[in-house]
Specification:
The structure is a single chain. The chain has 470 residues and is of the alpha/beta class. The chain is 37% helix and 23% strand. It has helices at residues 40-55, 86-96, 111-120, 137-148, 164-170, 192-209, 226-239, 298-305, 307-314, 318-330, 339-360, 393-396, 401-405, 433-439, 444-453, 463-469; strands at 3-9, 13-20, 25-33, 61-68, 75-80, 100-106, 124-127, 155-157, 176-178, 221-225, 250-255, 260-265, 275-277, 284-289, 363-369, 372-378, 387-390, 424-428, 455-457. The strands form 4 sheets. Strands 14-12-11-17-18-19 form a 6-stranded mixed β-sheet, sandwiched between helices. The chain has a 5-stranded mixed β-sheet with strand order 3-2-1-4-10. A 5-stranded parallel β-sheet has the order 6-5-7-8-9, with helices on both faces. A hairpin with a 4-residue loop joins strand 11 (250-255) and strand 12. The longest helix has 22 residues, at 339-360. The radius of gyration is 23 Å and the shape is globular. The chain starts with a strand and ends with a helix.
Length: 470
């Protein structure tokens, strides 16, 4: 038997998936605490012991690959020229690399901006600005100000190519990685080189800086941040591999304790007669909603949805919702135990998914020009997407995954939204998408077959959901 061990060094738990590469099946799962603040090896050994207890004995692993969101994940700050252009392009590159964006700046940096960046404590700073051969004044001024500062994090330069040498000189003494411009021409995005550079810095430096390599004896490599592994898993099941088709265009929803991530693998081009507006959209896109977390931002979800709506969905009184919210705020690692807590969690995740998907998808509007009305599109048109996949603890461990994923679908009450209309609904029942994203780097066909075999179709109503809705 040829086996692989896929590891997620998460912020709360170290999670393991052992898979049989020959039969394309899951051998078992293990879990231990995330002990990154002390010795991450302690949590890793606990997770391995848990896995061994479930399997009887551990097989010899041909691959032991890891991702990580431990120690705050990959914290990034972006700096660009204009907020709507190069700064936005840099933001998309950072999110696509699996980063946690902790600050975004545009125009000339001030001394106060440097103070704010320092307070953000980024792991990487992405410096962009200007098209190739275009404006270089601002990106060079920003490079000079950063160069004179005491910021010590690595800097990925993804700005005006003509200014790269001068920028590097201004940043002398810092660790600088030069990559392709995120916007080489006006309104043209090229964020893949920056993504690749960020990931390489993560592998070369951040893994060590966060102490994750203390458990190096138990794995072969940490390949990427966990959100990037989920994104690679999404890309894999959408596109397939040579000779093996994928699902087509997909939307992946990953609600977590602090954020709700949404990934789309789709061109999202406008329908016939509709005119696109704004920056071009990347086919592989990730958005992160920092105010929609099941634990750290539960109160923000309630505020966005309205406590009356959450209470009605959970079939609780508003007073009881407030009491349970206070319990969550006092202990953000609290898991539901009583029926009321399960009901509140279900209402929270449904609201989080509804808002997060609406923000990820594009919209249309009618504008009136001298030649008559024109329908314009902002963002991606995901109305024709083939499948919506739910992953992450709030969906994987939830009781009503279908009811959660239905919140991602088009709603007649939101006629201008370009949310999916009639996709297949799929459930990542074993939280395997991140693992398949990792495995795809070494065994792409096995990773694809494993991922597809473990996506449960939710197109039919589940009996206990039918009972709930009756």
């Amino acid at each position: 038997m040829s086996a692989a061990l896929l590891i997620d060094f998460g912020s709360t738990y170290t999670k393991l998936r052992a898979v049989d590469l020959d039969s394309r099946r899951i051998l078992g799962a293990g879990q231990g605490p995330s002990t990154v603040t002390t010795d991450i090896g302690i949590g890793m050994r606990a997770a391995l012991a848990d896995l061994e207890r479930r399997l009887g004995s551990l097989p010899r692993f041909e691959y032991r690959l890891a991702s990580s969101s431990a120690a705050g994940g990959l914290r990034m700050v972006t700096v660009g020229l204009v907020r709507e252009l190069t700064a936005e392009a840099a933001r998309r590159a950072a999110l696509g690399a699996g980063a946690k964006l902790v600050g975004a700046f545009a125009y000339r940096l001030t001394a106060g901006d440097i103070d704010e960046i320092r307070a953000c404590a980024p792991d990487i700073l992405l410096l962009a600005g200007g098209t190739d051969g275009g404006n270089s004044e601002v990106v060079l001024a920003n490079a000079a100000r950063i160069g004179k500062s005491d910021l010590a994090c690595p800097i990925v330069y993804a700005g005006n190519r003509a200014a790269a040498d001068e920028a590097c000189a201004a940043l002398a003494g810092k660790t600088v990685i030069v990559t392709g411009n995120v916007m080489p021409e006006f309104n043209v995005l090229a964020i893949e080189p920056a993504r690749a550079a960020i990931r390489q810095v993560f592998i070369d430096r951040i893994v060590h800086a966060k102490g994750i390599d203390r458990a190096a004896a138990d794995f072969d490599a940490v390949l990427m941040p966990t959100p990037a592994a989920v994104l690679e898993g999404a890309r894999l099941v959408a596109d397939g591999v040579q000779g093996h088709s994928g699902l087509g265009a997909v939307l992946v929803i990953d609600p977590g304790g602090a954020t709700t991530d949404v990934h789309s693998i789709s061109a999202g081009e406008p329908a016939a007669g509709v005119v696109p507006q704004g920056l071009p959209e990347p086919r592989v896109k990730r958005t992160v909603e920092g105010d929609l977390g099941m634990r750290h931002n539960a109160a923000a979800i309630v505020e966005a949805a309205g406590i009356d709506a959450i209470a009605a969905d959970a079939r609780l009184t508003e007073h009881r919702v407030r009491e349970l919210l206070h319990s969550i705020e006092r202990d953000v690692e609290r898991l539901p135990r009583a029926e009321e807590e399960f009901a509140l969690d279900a209402a929270l995740v449904r609201a989080a998914v509804r808002f997060a998907v609406a923000r990820h998808c594009g919209t249309i509007e009618t504008v009136y020009t001298v030649t008559g009305p024109v329908t314009v599109q902002h963002g991606k048109d995901l109305s024709r997407i083939d499948a919506v996949i739910g992953t992450g603890g709030a969906i994987v461990s939830g009781r009503h995954p279908r009811a959660v994923l239905q919140m991602a679908l088009a709603d007649p009450a939101e006629p201008l939204s370009l949310k999916p209309k009639s996709p297949r609904l799929l459930h990542d029942t074993h939280y395997l998408l991140y693992a398949c994203g990792l495995l795809s780097t070494v065994e792409p066909q096995a990773a694809l077959e494993l991922a597809l075999a473990n996506l449960q179709a939710l197109d039919e109503e589940i009996p206990h959901e039918r009972a709930r809705c009756a």
